[in-house]
Amino acid sequence: MEFGPHLMLATLEGAITAAILALTAVGLSLTFGVMRVVNVAHGEFFMLGAVAAWFISTAIGGHPALGFIAAVVFAPLIIGLLAASADWLVLKRLEYDPERTIVATIGLLYIIQQGALIGFGPNAQPVEAPFSHRIALPWFEWGESGFEMYYPWGLSTNSYKLFIIFAACAILMGLWVIMTRTKIGLVMRATQQDRDMATAFGIPVERVYALTFGLGAALAALGAVLIVPVQQAYYLMGHDPLLLSFIVVIIGGLGSLRGTVLAALLIGMSDGIISVFFSPTLAKIIATLLVAMVLVFRPQGLFGKGTH
Amino acid sequence: MNSTKKTAISRRSTLGLLGGAALAPAVLPGLSGFAQAQSSAPIKIGFQLHRTGIGAAYGRWYERTSNAAVARINDMGGINGRPVELVIEDDGTDPKRGAEVVEKFATQHECDIGFGTLFSHVVYGSAPRAGELKLPYFVCSEGHHVASGALNRYVMQPGITDVKSQVQAMAPFVANNLGKKVTMIFPDFAFGHDHRDFFSAAIEAQGGEVVAKIAIPPTETSFTKYFPQIPRETEVIYHVMVGPAVLTFVKEMGEFFGPSSPEIFGFIDSLEAVDLSSPGLEFLEGTYFWEGNPRYAQADQTEFDKTYRAAIGIDENGASVSDSADVSTYAHMFSCWETLNVIKRGMEAAGYQGPADRVKLIEAIEDMTDMAHSDDHPQGAKVFNGKTHQVFGHQYISQVEEGRLNVKHTTAIEDGFYEDEVDYTTQSF
């Protein structure tokens, strides 16, 4: 494949990775920022989102769009409630102690994963996209007869893949509005800045925590619902999103939503481009190296507020 | 045989240590009772199964096929007058767990033999332990690992042809009908490497060449990023993929090429347990697939195939009779059925009575050559090579026509023969 079309394809693939990664990592970052909880089970909430999407779309049947819309609405809601109840049942009892919550969320990871294996089974299950059209992309070139447009072999995308990118942007905008323009966002930011002071001002911190944990998980689930029509629901699919989300959150700065989104863009795009031109393994190596560099030279992350 | 005794003793002593004096009287009579009743006690076949992990789709059908085969054997009076019992252990499609499972068969379950493994990395992980424990270990894997001499005398593959033989038999069809410049897409582990190495050699022997080799990790979930490596000059895409995301792989390949695709020749592995009428697979119409055993009942279907399908509960489209969306791994799972029948024949020839006769069993199977097309071998006739512990059979090349696979070419058994690379019979037990 020629360089130009190749780069365009790589950028498109990277943009999809970045979009889903941004949703997932923002969820993880939110949980850490507000609650100081490192949620190791985050990837499993992602997996549950995909599994829930499969159950919902299979149960509804009919046109794939019906099942998809229902999945977009209900899957994050169900997973969010599940996560909030896990917060109430487990994390609250540990008084949100950072070390103990890590161990507790590792436990949650295994419980959720094995639960999915029992309930959903070991097979990958496809979810049909609500719409899907191959879009051949043109490329422009100065040829012998001047400026010409042609359709290179393999340079194409899919209407649903483009939808993923736009949907993720819209969701992130929505989240930004919630965090900056609503009372819920205000309360969450207050809790993030100073838990004790927030308590003193009458903010029900425990409820904010449950809400945050649920919201974080719901964002991961939403990312999975969006991606599952181009991948498949599978009980072990939570590993990669967890790893990449951690990389993104560390690079972006723990708890910084803006940093997380930018780091997701950086990691997603570089993953896409390096994977296409070189190999996916090299992309992971470089991302991990970047994390090491950030930890050495800028431990608070690119947009972190510095250590307290 | 000495080590068999040693194993039994160490197990007893371990039990003694664990259970203490109170438990010992309860356990020991059980053991001695088993010894007295040996003649009517079941023959225990340890079934190493990919029930979870990336091989789970195969595991589901390997289990159904093996259960049906054992039920049939038991209906016919068992082996040497004794019933057969499958002892199933999940290996999670994981090599490390595979070796542990083999160990459990030999020491904990006291199985007579081990059986069933498919994924080649699990075979590689498990086979050395089977050799150390002197447990006859029958794999249903397709990998060239047995015939290459990489394993040991206790490992045999009498139910399915290995990849080297398969691709050698099919390369002439690809070169003569589809094209000479081939791009290979294969999973990045032992099984895929067998394809890479042996198909490259086989197509060169036909005057063709492999213009690109694209390795994809079997755990990958997104594939579009690999396809730009396909050179423009490619005349034929040769694809073989395994793992949970095979459907995504094939869909994204179709999307990548759009209307201007090269010829496509796939191993049905890329779509095992996947419905050919799944949305996004329409582009496969007219493309070719290797099938170990034709998924769709053909016009010239044999009585053997009918009986075999009925025994497992598979309809003429290769799906479960109770759920038409539950598509089988039809091209591979016959290996379980046939291997179990080879084991039966071997045990009968050896007069197998118990673990002390394991060596006799292996020698009896090494003496086998022809396996006739029959209810025992519904996939077709086969020739077993006792020196390399590998069986050779017919291969089927099918074309997708109106959403079903119709066999276009059947290779001769001899097409897949190659020089022996090992003589296991010269190795000591």
What does this entry look like structurally?
In chain A, the strands form 2 sheets. In chain A, strands 1-4 form a two-stranded antiparallel sheet. A two-stranded antiparallel ribbon of chain A has the order 2-3. Chain A has a single domain (3-122, 158-297), classed as Orthogonal Bundle (ABC transporter involved in vitamin B12 uptake, BtuC). Chain A is globular. In chain A, helix 1 packs across helix 9 (239-252) and helix 2 (42-60) packs parallel to helix 4. Helices cover 71% and strands 5% of the residues of chain A. The longest helix of chain A is centred in the first third of the chain and has 33 residues, at 3-35. Chain A has helices at 3-35, 42-60, 64-91, 98-119, 159-181, 183-193, 195-200, 205-227, 239-252, 257-277, 280-297; strands at 134-136, 139-143, 146-150, 156-158. By secondary structure, chain A is mainly alpha-helical. The model of chain A has no long low-confidence stretch (mean pLDDT 90). Chain B is an alpha/beta fold and 429 residues long. Chain B folds into 2 domains: 2-162 and 334-393, Rossmann fold (3-Layer(aba) Sandwich); 163-300 and 395-416, Response regulator (Rossmann fold, 3-Layer(aba) Sandwich), CATH 3.40.50. Helices cover 38% and strands 18% of the residues of chain B. Chain B is built from 10 helices and 17 strands. In chain B, the strands form 4 sheets. Chain B has a 7-stranded mixed beta sheet with strand order 7-6-8-9-10-16-17. In chain B, a hairpin with a 2-residue loop joins strand 16 and strand 17. At the A-B interface, helix 1 and helix 10 of A face helix 2 and helix 7 of B.
In short:
Chain A is mainly alpha-helical and 308 residues long. In chain A, 71% of the residues lie in helices and 5% in strands. Classes of the chains: A mainly alpha (308), B alpha/beta (429).
Number of domains of chain B: 2
- Major pleated sheet of chain B: 7 strands, mixed
Instruction: Kindly report the spatial arrangement of strands forming the biggest sheet of chain A.
Output: 1-4
CATH topology of the largest domain in chain B: Rossmann fold
Please provide the ordered H/E string of secondary-structure elements of chain B.
HEHEHEHEEHEHEEHEEHEEHHEEEEE
